[in-house]
Design goal:
Length: 254
């Protein structure tokens, strides 16, 4: 089922973070000497209470935070893609140009078309972003990340704005894409079920460090599986959420 993990052994990690600090002024230290390894091809979900620094960590790994403190160590692969909650498609560009935007590969267009087909958007290459649904826009955003052939995919609540049914479809799509392309993945989510359904490992950030680190080893990734429910209860407990705090019917979300 689930077990506390130790350090990864064998192949060098895709992500290596050591003693990372980030503060936003006196008394506002968010990351406090954080250590983290993510193996190549490993899918890690990052959960934690609001304001614990999940996005801060992701931004540091994405190279989007120039002010991250000078001490500590962050090593990531050369090829990193980031997917956010909003698709961040450029509204003045059609979908295919959006997907290949910034790519200097000579076969970028072919790659873009292939990526769009992989996410189920073949035939929508010439659509404008506003002509796509929210779920389709996130698919296009995933296609854009694939074009870069990332060794590391960073995703900050990419499905947070989608309805429940679309989320389930996106989970299946993301799992399929990850099985095909095998990037290391760090997914920030508030949804404990999403974390368990998708990830090889779930880590919980608290007080600026990795507070809990569990490997997901379930026979079935179904919320109906008792082992799934047990892991969910364990993680919710670690988050300080107790069953009576969660409204009936919403027992999946933290
Ligand atoms: N640019 C900034 N300037 C000042 N404070 C910041 C900045 N960015 C983040 N913070 C603070 O750092 C803390 C962590 O923010 P962060 O967005 O990383 O949390 P989070 O865990 O992703 O939260 P949530 O789950 O609510 O999205 C928060 O208290 C936030 O106010």
């Amino acid at each position: 089922m689930a077990a506390d993990t130790g350090r990864l052994t064998g192949t060098p990690p895709a992500v290596r973070v050591r003693d990372l600090y980030r503060d936003f002024g006196p008394g506002r230290t968010v990351l406090r000497g954080l250590d983290l390894d993510v193996a190549p091809g490993e899918f890690v979900a990052l959960i934690g209470r609001s304001g614990t620094g999940k996005s801060t960590l992701l931004r540091a790994l994405a190279g989007l935070d120039r002010d991250v403190a000078g001490h500590g160590e962050v090593t990531v692969p050369d090829s990193v893609s980031v997917v956010f909650q909003d698709s961040r498609l450029l509204p003045w560009k059609r979908i295919l140009p959006n997907v290949v935007f910034g790519s200097r590969a000579p076969d970028a267009v072919v790659r873009g078309e292939r990526a769009l087909a992989e996410v189920g958007l073949a035939g929508r290459e010439r659509a404008w972003p506003h002509e796509l649904s929210g779920g389709e826009q996130q698919r296009a955003s995933l296609a854009r990340s694939l074009v870069r052939q990332p060794e590391l995919l960073l995703a900050d609540e990419p499905f947070g704005a989608l309805d429940a049914l679309t989320r389930i479809r996106m989970h299946a799509l993301l799992r399929r894409l990850c099985e095909t392309h095998r990037p290391a993945v760090l997914l920030v989510t508030h949804d404990v079920d999403e974390a368990i359904v998708l990830a090889d490992r779930v880590i919980l950030l608290d007080d600026g460090v990795v507070h809990t680190d569990v490997r997901v080893e379930l026979p079935h990734r179904s919320p109906a599986d008792p082992a799934f429910a047990e892991l969910r209860a364990y993680l919710l407990d670690r988050l300080g959420v107790h069953d009576e705090d969660v409204p009936a019917g919403r027992r999946a979300a933290a």
